[in-house]
Design goal:
Strands 1-3-4-5-2 form a five-stranded antiparallel sheet, with helices on one face. It has two helices and five strands, in the order βαββββα. This is Acyl-CoA thioesterase. GO terms for molecular function: hydrolase activity. It is an enzyme of class 3 (hydrolase).
Protein backbone atom coordinates (compact mmCIF):
# COMPACT_ATOMS: atom_id res chain seq x y z
CA UNK A 1 0.00 0.00 0.00
CA UNK A 2 1.43 3.35 -0.93
CA UNK A 3 1.10 6.59 0.95
CA UNK A 4 -2.17 8.13 -0.09
CA UNK A 5 -3.45 11.62 0.77
CA UNK A 6 -6.18 10.11 2.96
CA UNK A 7 -3.70 7.89 4.81
CA UNK A 8 -1.82 10.86 6.26
CA UNK A 9 -4.59 13.44 6.44
CA UNK A 10 -4.54 13.96 10.21
CA UNK A 11 -1.95 16.29 11.75
CA UNK A 12 -1.85 13.84 14.69
CA UNK A 13 -0.17 11.27 12.43
CA UNK A 14 3.29 12.41 11.39
CA UNK A 15 4.46 12.40 7.79
CA UNK A 16 7.15 9.72 7.80
CA UNK A 17 8.68 7.37 5.25
CA UNK A 18 5.63 5.08 5.51
CA UNK A 19 6.52 3.50 2.16
CA UNK A 20 9.42 1.79 4.02
CA UNK A 21 7.14 0.54 6.80
CA UNK A 22 6.50 -3.07 7.62
CA UNK A 23 2.87 -3.87 6.77
CA UNK A 24 0.79 -6.34 8.72
CA UNK A 25 -2.75 -7.22 7.70
CA UNK A 26 -4.91 -7.64 10.78
CA UNK A 27 -7.96 -9.90 10.89
CA UNK A 28 -10.81 -8.10 12.61
CA UNK A 29 -12.88 -10.42 14.82
CA UNK A 30 -16.55 -10.16 15.62
CA UNK A 31 -15.66 -9.81 19.31
CA UNK A 32 -13.62 -6.66 18.49
CA UNK A 33 -16.82 -4.75 17.76
CA UNK A 34 -18.69 -3.00 20.57
CA UNK A 35 -22.35 -2.00 20.85
CA UNK A 36 -21.66 1.20 18.85
CA UNK A 37 -20.61 -0.97 15.87
CA UNK A 38 -17.01 0.15 15.92
CA UNK A 39 -13.80 -1.48 17.15
CA UNK A 40 -13.45 -1.24 20.91
CA UNK A 41 -10.53 1.02 21.82
CA UNK A 42 -8.90 -1.75 23.86
CA UNK A 43 -8.39 -3.81 20.70
CA UNK A 44 -6.10 -1.23 19.11
CA UNK A 45 -3.26 -2.21 21.45
CA UNK A 46 -3.74 -5.87 20.50
CA UNK A 47 -3.60 -5.02 16.80
CA UNK A 48 -0.36 -3.09 17.36
CA UNK A 49 1.17 -5.89 19.44
CA UNK A 50 0.33 -8.49 16.79
CA UNK A 51 1.83 -6.24 14.10
CA UNK A 52 5.10 -5.91 16.07
CA UNK A 53 5.29 -9.68 16.46
CA UNK A 54 4.75 -10.10 12.70
CA UNK A 55 7.36 -7.42 11.98
CA UNK A 56 10.02 -9.15 14.09
CA UNK A 57 9.14 -12.47 12.43
CA UNK A 58 9.12 -11.09 8.89
CA UNK A 59 12.42 -9.25 9.43
CA UNK A 60 13.98 -12.51 10.67
CA UNK A 61 14.93 -11.09 14.06
CA UNK A 62 16.79 -13.88 15.87
CA UNK A 63 14.65 -15.08 18.78
CA UNK A 64 17.41 -14.55 21.34
CA UNK A 65 17.90 -10.98 20.04
CA UNK A 66 14.21 -10.07 19.93
CA UNK A 67 13.28 -10.80 23.54
CA UNK A 68 11.75 -7.55 24.80
CA UNK A 69 9.20 -6.06 27.14
CA UNK A 70 6.87 -3.16 26.55
CA UNK A 71 8.01 -0.22 28.68
CA UNK A 72 5.84 2.57 27.28
CA UNK A 73 2.92 2.97 24.90
CA UNK A 74 1.36 6.12 23.49
CA UNK A 75 -1.77 5.79 21.38
CA UNK A 76 -3.65 8.54 19.57
CA UNK A 77 -7.14 7.61 18.44
CA UNK A 78 -7.83 9.68 15.33
CA UNK A 79 -10.89 8.07 13.76
CA UNK A 80 -13.22 5.17 14.53
CA UNK A 81 -12.71 1.81 12.89
CA UNK A 82 -15.94 0.12 11.84
CA UNK A 83 -16.92 -3.50 11.37
CA UNK A 84 -15.88 -4.93 8.02
CA UNK A 85 -13.08 -2.50 7.22
CA UNK A 86 -9.75 -3.88 5.96
CA UNK A 87 -7.07 -3.30 8.61
CA UNK A 88 -3.36 -2.81 8.00
CA UNK A 89 -0.77 -1.75 10.57
CA UNK A 90 2.28 0.03 9.20
CA UNK A 91 5.31 0.06 11.54
CA UNK A 92 8.63 1.89 11.46
CA UNK A 93 11.54 1.89 13.89
CA UNK A 94 11.96 5.45 15.12
CA UNK A 95 15.00 4.91 17.30
CA UNK A 96 17.38 2.18 18.39
CA UNK A 97 18.96 3.01 21.73
CA UNK A 98 21.46 1.20 23.91
CA UNK A 99 18.88 -1.18 25.43
CA UNK A 100 15.63 -0.13 23.75
CA UNK A 101 13.84 0.18 20.44
CA UNK A 102 11.13 2.76 19.74
CA UNK A 103 8.53 1.68 17.20
CA UNK A 104 5.96 4.00 15.64
CA UNK A 105 2.92 2.66 13.85
CA UNK A 106 -0.33 3.70 12.31
CA UNK A 107 -3.48 1.65 11.92
CA UNK A 108 -5.15 2.02 8.54
CA UNK A 109 -8.79 1.05 7.95
CA UNK A 110 -9.63 0.87 4.25
CA UNK A 111 -6.48 2.95 3.63
CA UNK A 112 -7.39 5.73 6.05
CA UNK A 113 -5.15 6.35 9.07
CA UNK A 114 -7.24 5.87 12.20
CA UNK A 115 -4.64 5.66 14.98
CA UNK A 116 -0.97 6.41 15.67
CA UNK A 117 1.20 4.78 18.32
CA UNK A 118 4.69 5.00 19.71
CA UNK A 119 6.04 2.22 21.90
CA UNK A 120 9.33 1.69 23.68
CA UNK A 121 10.49 -1.91 23.83
CA UNK A 122 13.30 -2.74 26.24
CA UNK A 123 15.56 -5.57 25.14
CA UNK A 124 15.93 -8.02 28.03
CA UNK A 125 17.83 -11.17 28.93
CA UNK A 126 16.29 -14.39 30.27
CA UNK A 127 16.07 -12.89 33.76
CA UNK A 128 14.21 -9.86 32.29
CA UNK A 129 17.09 -7.48 32.98
CA UNK A 130 17.80 -4.85 30.31
CA UNK A 131 20.55 -5.81 27.91
CA UNK A 132 22.17 -4.02 25.01
CA UNK A 133 20.56 -4.17 21.60
CA UNK A 134 22.84 -6.47 19.62
CA UNK A 135 24.21 -6.06 16.12
CA UNK A 136 21.89 -8.74 14.69
CA UNK A 137 18.78 -6.91 15.96
CA UNK A 138 20.06 -3.53 14.72
CA UNK A 139 20.76 -5.04 11.30
CA UNK A 140 17.38 -6.77 11.07
CA UNK A 141 15.47 -3.58 11.94
CA UNK A 142 17.53 -1.27 9.69
CA UNK A 143 15.22 -1.46 6.63
CA UNK A 144 12.35 -0.02 8.69
CA UNK A 145 14.21 2.92 10.26
CA UNK A 146 12.57 6.34 10.15
CA UNK A 147 14.50 8.62 7.81
CA UNK A 148 14.54 12.42 7.89
Amino acid sequence: MSLTPTAAASPRIPELNWTDAHRAEIQMRYSDIDTNHHVNNGRYGEYLENARIMMFRDLNVPHDEGHNVLARMELDYVQEIHAGQKLVVESLVERIGRTSVTVVARILADGVACAFSRVVLVNVDDAHRPREVGAALRSALAPTLVRP
